[in-house]
Amino acid sequence: MTHPRRTTEPGQAAQAWATDGRHGHDTREGKQVTARKWFGRTTILIGVLIAAIAVVASASAGKKASNPYGLMKPGTLTVGMTLQFKPQMYLDAKGKPAGYDVVLLKTLAKQWGVTPERRKSISFSRAYVPYAQILAAVTTDTTPATVAAWNDSSKTITSLQGSTAEQLVQKTFPNATSRSFPDQNAAFLEVASGRASGIVVENYLLAQFNKSNGNKLKEVAFPKPLHVEYGSYGVQKGNTKLAGALSKFICSVQKSGQLAKVYQSTIGAPLPAMPACK
Known about the structure:
Layout: E1 76-78, E2 84-85, E3 89-91, E4 97-98, H1 100-112, E5 115-117, E6 123-138, H2 147-150, E7 156-160, H3 164-172, E8 177-181, H4 184-192, E9 198-202, H5 203-212, E10 217-219, E11 227-235, H6 240-256, H7 258-267
Parallel strand pairs: 1-5, 7-8, 7-9
Antiparallel strand pairs: 2-3, 3-4, 6-9, 6-10, 6-11
């Protein structure tokens, strides 16, 4: 699939379809992406697998006379989601929606007493999911966890070809050799096999690789991620009541610690820093 270029600046909350967005970080226009997609960076306007999430609504869902959030259909929260990107959003072995977005939406539906279904959306809530780019190396690597130590001609750092990570390697570690691959696994294996020093990648992808490969790699313990962007929920354009209610929900689960628990249990990595709730 092909995707538009990233239009958000670093640190800004990205705008995406409802629970859809960002994987791939592909900046190549008109080329094929084999392992990733844009997620939370830009709006996706291409043909992707759109699937509906169905959960059991609470008794209050039947009370359709009240519609405080300005839903398209009272009692129903309509959501569009690309179920192709484990562990963010995917179909499990039984063909059921699963992953971080699905668990969080079920929590929302339970609180509100509504049923999520599919729908495109074009206005946005506050950020609900972070995308943290980190540097990973083999677990036995003893290089100091400083940019200066890694920004050295003796280092070779891999990344996904045409991605935000590739740009970060070239910008952050200009003295190192940048080696990019059209497939994410190839970039990982280059490091795991000792042919490269490290890889710049999103933290949750590192967790997934380690889960399948015996924890061969570790995150280099920089004081903070190399770069963080965020994904937001999308709603009907101009529906400030629903966007505001979603933002309130996000803050509630963020403050209670539930957001971090959902992220850890589905993504397999600690929740990166989120924008503070006022």
